[in-house]
Every structure is written in C-alpha cells, then in structure tokens.
Design a protein that fits this description.
Blueprint: E1 15-22, E2 27-39, E3 42-47, E4 52-55, E5 58-61, E6 66-70, E7 76-81, E8 87-100, E9 103-116, E10 122-125, H1 127-136, H2 141-159, H3 167-184
Parallel strand pairs: 1-9
Antiparallel strand pairs: 1-2, 2-3, 2-4, 3-6, 4-5, 6-7, 7-8, 8-9, 9-10
Length: about 180
C-alpha cells in the first residue's frame, strides 16, 4: 500500500471511539479509548479504568486497564487486560475492521478466542451464537470457512504465547498507555 493510500490515523494520545456493529449494520459495542500508536503487528489502542464501554442495553465502566491490537488484516481485534482482569486475552473475530474517519470500526462476527486467569483456560467462545447467526444472516460460506480457521489458528497462537500474544508485547503497550495518560494528568 502506498503511503498516500494509508488510512488517516490520529496522533498517539488522541482519545477516540472504537465502534463495532453486527452483520447487517446493527449497533454493537462502542469503547472509549486512546490511540497508542502502531508497530509491526498493527495499531494499538488503550482503555483506562472508568472509561466507558457500551452497547444497546449495556453500559459499564472498565474496571482494569487494557490495550487492544487491530492488525492490518482487519479480521480480529485482540484485547489484553491488565491483572487482575478475568480475561488475559479476549479476541473478537471480525470482518472489515478498519479505519474510517480517523476511528476504528468493524463488524463483530460472534466468535471470540479467550484466555482466562481464573483457571477456565483458553477456548473459542460463542460458537452457539456463530452457528445461529451464520444461518440467520446468511454469512457467505467462504467467509465462514476463513473465520472459523482463523479462530482455531488464533487459539493455538494464544495458547503458545506467540508474539504479539506474549506478556512482553502486552507490557510494552500497557507502559505506553500509562505514559500517554500520565502526561495528560
């Protein structure tokens, strides 16, 4: 991609909204966050305790700091929660996750890969919702095959703590979140 074709990104430290929809355009999660910057894995965002995450019928203040990776592939967003958060890693399988008007937007495709700190382990979550929605909304078969294979691959990579799912990568971006937000204080 040429430099001119790259999406417009805000300056690191810029507050923004990370917006999700469901297939067909239905409203889903909106997360208050800050743009942290980018590395070879993609763009990174952060949330601090007290910042809002909301969707229809649910609105809550985040309890622990987290950082989220949006890779250039646009097919998932990986959120890493600081301890003692229940989920170490929570990956939303996505479609068309991209920059739009200097904010990240994407379609949540139901499947999630989770890694917990409470002893439940690592697994692919929401398979029942995936099975229901892929029929009800008519997900294209090639997309179904691609995203199911992606979920399995990501589960294996999280289990192996491969970069960027390793503690060192996460710690660097959490430190960046803390340094950017400390400068605002």
């Amino acid at each position: 991609m040429s430099e001119d074709a790259r999406p417009i990104r805000p300056e690191p430290g810029t507050r923004l909204q990370f917006r999700w929809t469901k297939w067909g355009g239905g409203e889903h999660w909106v997360h208050e966050c800050v743009y942290l910057g980018a590395d070879e894995w993609g763009d990174w965002f952060g949330q601090l305790p007290g910042w809002r995450s909301r969707r229809p019928s649910r609105d809550f203040a985040v309890e622990v700091a987290n950082v989220t990776l949006m890779p250039p592939s646009g097919d998932y967003a990986a959120t890493f929660n600081v301890a003692p958060g229940t989920y170490r890693v929570y990956i939303d399988i996505a479609w068309d996750l991209r920059w739009q008007d200097a904010e990240p937007v994407g379609i949540d495709m139901d499947l999630d890969v989770v890694d917990t700190r409470d002893g439940r382990g690592i697994w692919i979550d929401d398979r029942d919702e995936w099975d229901e929605h892929r029929v009800a909304y008519g997900y294209p078969l090639d997309l179904v095959e691609k995203l199911e294979a992606l979920a399995v691959d990501l589960e294996q990579r999280v289990r192996a703590h491969e970069v960027p799912f390793d503690d060192g990568t996460i710690a660097r971006w959490v430190a960046r979140l803390e340094s950017l937000t400390a400068a605002d204080a």
